[in-house]
Amino acid sequence: MLIPSLRKRHPPTHEPVPSFGPGRDLKFQDIEGLLETYLSKREIANIYRAYIFGYQAHAGQRRASGESYISHPVEVARILAGLHMDSKTISAAILHDVIEDTPTAKKQLAKGFGKEVAELVDGVSKLSKVSFTDQAEVQAESFRKMLMAMTRDIRVIMIKLADRLHNMRTLGVMREDKRKRIAKETLEIYAPIASRLGIQGFKHELEDLSFKAIHPKRYNALEMAVKHSRGHRKGLLKKIEHSIEKRMKQDGVTGKISSREKHLYGIYTKMKKKGLSFDEVFDVYAIRIVTDSIDSCYRILGVLHSLYSPIPGRFKDYIAIPKANGYQSLHTVLVSPYGVPIEAQIRTDQMDQIAEAGIAAHWLYKSGKVQKETSNWISGLLDLQKQAGNSKEFLENVKIDLFPEEVYVFTPKGEIIVLPRGSCPVDFAYAVHTDVGNTCVAARVNHHYVPLQTQLRNGNTIEITTDKKAIPDPGWLNFVSTAKARSSIRHHLKHLQRRKARKLGENLINKSLHTYALSLSTVDEKRMEALLKEINLKTRELLYEDVGLGNRMAPLVARQLAPLLDETASSDTTPSARNKGVRPLGIASDEGMVIHLAKCCRPIPGDRIQGIATAGRGIVIHRPECPNISEFRNRPERLIDVQWDTGPRNVFHVIIQINSVNRRGALATLASTFADAGCNIDHIDMDDRDGNTSSLEFLISIKDTKHLEKVLQKIREIDFVLDAERKCT
Question: Who contacts 19 (Cβ-Cβ below 8 Å, separation ≥6)?
Answer without folding.
Answer: none
